[in-house]
UniProtKB/TrEMBL annotation:
Name of the protein this chain belongs to: Putative 2'-deoxynucleoside 5'-phosphate N-hydrolase 1
Top-level enzyme category: hydrolase
Residues that, per the record, bind substrate: E82, S106, G107, M108
Lineage: Bacteria, Candidatus Berkelbacteria
Catalyzed reactions per annotation: a pyrimidine 2'-deoxyribonucleoside 5'-phosphate + H2O = a pyrimidine nucleobase + 2-deoxy-D-ribose 5-phosphate; 5-hydroxymethyl-dUMP + H2O = 5-hydroxymethyluracil + 2-deoxy-D-ribose 5-phosphate; a purine 2'-deoxyribonucleoside 5'-phosphate + H2O = a purine nucleobase + 2-deoxy-D-ribose 5-phosphate
Job description of the protein: Catalyzes the cleavage of the N-glycosidic bond of deoxyribonucleoside 5'-monophosphates to yield deoxyribose 5-phosphate and a purine or pyrimidine base.
Subunit structure and binding partners: Monomer and homodimer.
Classification via InterPro entries: 2'-dNMP_N-hydrolase (IPR051239), DNPH1 (IPR028607), MSMEG_1276-like_NTP-PPase_dom (IPR038735), Nucleoside_deoxyribTrfase (IPR007710)
Length: 249
């Protein structure tokens, strides 16, 4: 199991020892992608890395993780941002809150039914409750989507449980549309300065489009003809024009 551990860094390192203990505990359950947060030498200045690199890396790790554990006793904008992003992509998240903290837990966390909140007043109690939750998630299937043909082999090598079924043709077409939405969102998140990342996401996007064309028996020649006709009527994006104005009812 791949675990993304989230905890305050620049907001304050008063819980550095707790983070160190948590990373050590979580390592018994799998690979902690953000093990550096448990480094006792890490200060409020954060990592000595380029900011854009840290953002892209952490977003990639969140996407890769099976579950996210967030220690929220020290309020942090970064941790809150990560939790919201995690919720959007539908991954399980467990938040840990020390009840003797001078800061109150946010109502946005406590009132959110999609987040499992574990309150604790000592490490042993937190460890006991967290272990129960992790044991539940370890046995769950984290995949319920259209996958490429060789993905089951990769999942099996990672030691994860899975069940592969063959979709009906109609459900396959529906799944392709959903996959197109997923890949479009991934492409939209890419920073324009990162050409390699743009290329990788475009490949995934085009692959889904080609699969839709094949499933719907759409001729690439017909698509090319239609594209030329539309370009003739509407033009292209070559001149980088943008329109602003009130919506016409």
């Amino acid at each position: 199991m791949k675990i993304y551990f989230s905890g305050a860094i620049r907001a304050g390192r008063e819980n550095a020892l707790l983070h160190h203990q948590l990373v050590k505990f979580l390592s018994d359950y799998g690979k902690v992608l953000t093990s550096h947060i448990g480094d006792m030498n890490l200060t409020e200045k954060g990592e000595a890395r380029e900011i854009n690199y840290i953002y892209r890396r952490d977003m990639r790790w969140i996407k890769e993780a099976d579950i996210v554990i967030a220690e929220i006793s020290t309020p942090s904008v970064g941790v809150g941002y990560e939790i919201r992003h995690i919720e959007e992509i539908g991954k399980p998240v467990i938040c840990l809150y020390f009840t003797k903290s001078p800061k109150n837990v946010s109502g946005m966390i406590e009132g959110n039914k999609n987040i499992k909140l574990i309150k604790y007043d000592n490490f042993a109690k937190m460890e006991f409750n967290l272990r129960k939750e992790l044991d539940k998630h370890k046995s769950k299937i984290f995949y319920n989507k259209l996958i490429r043909d060789k993905i089951p082999e990769i999942i099996k090598k990672q030691g994860k449980k899975y069940r592969v079924s063959t979709l009906s043709f109609e459900n396959f077409k529906k799944a392709l549309k959903q996959k197109l939405v997923e890949e479009s969102k991934e492409f939209a998140k890419v920073k324009t300065i990162n050409k390699k990342e743009i290329e990788n996401e475009l490949v995934d996007l085009k692959e889904v489009i080609e699969a839709i064309e094949k499933a719907e028996h759409i001729s690439t020649k017909n698509i090319a003809v239609l594209k030329r006709e539309k370009n003739k009527k509407r033009g292209t994006f070559e001149k980088k024009k943008n329109a602003m104005g009130r919506k016409i009812e």
